[in-house]
Amino acid sequence: MADWLIWQLADSAFPTGGFAHSSGLEAAWQQGEVDATSLSAFVHDVITQAGHGVVPFVTAAHRESGDLGAIDSQCDAFLRNPVTNRASRVQGRAWLRTVERAFRAAAVRTVCETARADAPFRHHAVMFGATLRALEVELPDAQRLFLFGVCRNTLSAAVRLGLVGTMDAQRLLAETAGNLDRTIARCASLTIDEAAQTMPLVDLWQSAHDRLYSRLFQS
Questions:
Q1: Who contacts 72 (Cβ-Cβ below 8 Å, separation ≥6)?
Q2: Rounded to 5 degrees, what are φ and ψ at 145?
Q3: For residue 192, what pLDDT is reported?
Q4: Whole-angstrom Cα distance, residue 218 to residue 65?
Q5: Sign of the alpha-carbon torsion through 53, 121, 115, 132
Q6: Hey, where are the domains in the chain?
């Protein structure tokens, strides 16, 4: 059952709102900082930053889902970029709503009720970790699934922006496997006190999103 569940959660048809965000790619592309040839490096940086800056909150929420309020508040304090912070809240609420409607297990209902009562911000990484624990997905699988979603969603944004075609995006997704594994190896045991922003340019491009004259994505 766990394998089928992971495949369902990884499916692009699972409506979590992730495809409404570009992880700063849209702003970087409009400013001429990223094109088809440099897209792979950008995706590498996004994965690295997610591993060091966000996966620790997935890990903490999965291990200590009873203390969601404190973890959620720490995540909110860590995400100082207003665009990134807002996107995390939007995705977290969408993820929680989708999981609650898709899975009727008592443990899922309990964690969703706890999140709404105790976690005022409901950041994506925190909701992701807590709900996957409730769904009995092991922590290593939850961490891998989260990073895969970051990578896939960024490449999907690249396709919709016209940076690359669907075939090239799939090639790039396959080529990131090694980077995903290395990032997991480095970041799987990080605590939230060790969370860090490792790619400041990605953070700067993300923060510029609201200043774009026209935009396709929310962030």
A1: 115, 118, 119, 120, 121, 122, 123, 126
A2: -65, -40
A3: 94
A4: 28
A5: negative
A6: 21-206
Instruction: Look up residue 60 and give its two tokens.
Output: 């903490």
Tokens standing for residue 88: 């995390």
pTM (2 d.p.): 0.94
Contact between 128 and 9 (Cβ < 8 Å): no
Q: What whole-number distance in Å separates Cα of residue 41 and Cα of residue 47?
A: 10
Average pLDDT over residues 7-27: 87
CATH topology of domain 21-206: Urease accessory protein UreF (1.10.4190)
Task: List phi, psi (to 5°) of 116.
Answer: -70, -30
The vertex-99 CA angle with 76 and 62, nearest 5°, equals 50
The mean per-residue pLDDT over the stretch 178-189 comes to 95
| H or E element, residue 119 | none
How does pLDDT run across 36-89, given as a tens digit for each residue? 999 999 999 999 999 999 999 999 999 986 689 999 999 999 999 999 999 999
Cα→Cα distances 31→84, 92, 177, 211, 212, Å: 18, 28, 28, 11, 9
Instruction: Tell me how far apart the alpha carbons of residues 192 and 212 are, in angstroms, rounded to a whole number.
Output: 32
State the SS3 of 159-173: HHHCCCCHHHHHHHH
